[in-house]
Amino acid sequence: MTLHTVFFSGKGATAACAHCVKNAIGLPAKLHNWMKKPPTGPVDIPAGDVLLLAMPVYAGFIPAICRPWVEQLQGHGTPAVIAAVYGNRHYDNALLQMQQLLEARGFRVIAAGAFLAEHSIFPEVAKGRPDKEDMDAMTAFGARCAQLLADDWHNALTLALPGDPEAQAPDRKPAGMYPTANKECINCRACSDLCPGRAIPRARPQETDPAKCVQCGACIAICPMQARGYFSDSWKERAPVFAEKCAQYRKPEVFFVK
Ligand SMILES: Cc1cc2nc3c(=O)[nH]c(=O)nc-3n(C[C@H](O)[C@H](O)[C@H](O)COP(=O)(O)O)c2cc1C
Fold this sequence. Notes:
Largest sheet: 6 strands, mixed
Helix content: 25-40%
Strand order of the largest sheet: 2-1-4-6-7-10
Distance between the termini: 22 Å
CATH topology of the largest domain: Rossmann fold
Number of helices: 7
Oligomer: single chain
Strand content: 15-25%
Bound molecules: flavin mononucleotide
């Protein structure tokens, strides 16, 4: 039994969550890091294996870039564990969307978790998350998934998850919310080479094509000079307002089939 651990993570929190849950489930794992290598064709996951899908929450859904990749996954009554990592505003429809996409493709979602992390656009929001309690919650979630997988989950009812089943992911991004580089940039092009949207030209890595940027923040995380970030006036105006709106400490939530 192999645990196919699939994740997309710009700034690292979703990757950390995927690893923590994977370790707690404790099965031999195959990692599918979609930031480095997204699928180029169908990915078959047999009935006797398990899928762990961990996604960051973007505007209440999974990142738009990941949706066609999720649609490449093919289950055969395969059990799936899903995790959404969000920046203390809300995860809205992300878990439900993952469940709908996976169950349409032959998976049975048996457990779901919504976990907290620093907001990757507004890092003052949920600063320091995931904290120890968050990591303990991820470990406990994985351990309970391991028990569930060992039990007979086959006859369980469909997992009821919060969210609006009719909701559609927005097709517009807020203006001015994409990272660029300041004068510390040394043209190493690590960001251009990693960018999943191919939004940073190799010839001018200080620039970003707003139409192509998926806002994942991988360029900020990988920059060896800390030269990349959000510098626009609209970001500066929005950051304190958003931080105040999202100041309340939210806790992880977990759901299991019965
Ligand atoms: C484009 C974008 C949209 C986001 N939308 C939400 C959201 O709707 N709710 C929320 O709580 N956090 C939101 N976040 C914050 C991320 O979900 C959070 O920071 C997550 O940990 C990022 O994962 P990563 O560290 O693996 O990149 C958003 C982040 C980005 C980049």
